[in-house]
Design goal:
Radius of gyration: 33 Å
Number of helices: 6
Order of helices and strands: HHHHHH
Structural class: mainly alpha
Largest sheet: none
Distance between the termini: 102 Å
Shape: rod-shaped
Helix content: over 70%
Number of strands: 0
């Protein structure tokens, strides 16, 4: 039995393929050797290892946001794309965070590792919040810029129409004056009789 492949199924397959490719490319933004070093590092030293990895991810996210909002499309569609990318960014931070391995330092106490793990989680949350703030600021700025551009275009269109109206009124005035010059005394003659 031959199954029909509809355009919807093809489109869904392409979307899934694009998501898988983009997700795989995004996951490779961080050097695998550095991730392995994070796994072997004591959890108390995670800040020194996490920050460079999170910085790489943050730079990639910022680069994407810059490129995304340079598009001339409406901001609502660009915002949806940015939010999807932000979710991927947070997922990447969590994947990096999962490389932390409690118990790597045999001399550390349970409570010191719990405390250090909490501090490392705070670092991850800081990077997530920082990216969210930057994204929101970018959305607001580009929305304001695009609204200003739209208003400017409308004002220019109104200004062009007013300029044309001004020319039309000047032309009518000129025609009345030329009519008056061609018929001197016409008005006086009609009024006196």
């Amino acid at each position: 039995m031959i199954k029909k492949i509809t355009a919807g199924k093809i489109a869904a397959g392409l979307i899934i393929l694009l998501f898988v490719e983009n997700h795989a490319a995004f996951a490779l933004a961080v050097d695998q050797k550095k991730l392995e070093a994070l796994r072997d590092a004591p959890i108390e030293d995670c800040e020194r290892h996490l920050r460079p990895l999170f910085d790489v991810e943050l730079r990639e996210f910022q680069k994407f946001i810059e490129e995304n909002f340079q598009n001339k499309s409406i901001n609502s569609s660009l915002t949806n794309i940015a939010l999807s990318r932000y979710r991927e960014y947070k997922l990447a931070l969590k994947q990096i965070f999962l490389y932390l391995k409690p118990g790597a330092d045999a001399d550390a106490t349970y409570f010191s590792e719990i405390s250090a793990y909490g501090q490392c989680k705070n670092i991850m949350d800081f990077y997530a919040d920082s990216a969210k703030e930057q994204m929101m600021r970018h959305i607001k700025n580009t929305t304001a810029i695009k609204k200003t551009a739209i208003l400017l275009e409308k004002y220019q269109a109104i200004n062009n129409q007013l300029r044309q109206l001004n020319l039309d009124i000047a032309q009518i005035y000129g025609l009345f004056k030329s009519f008056e010059a061609k018929l001197p005394g016409f008005l006086q003659y009609c009024i006196t009789k």
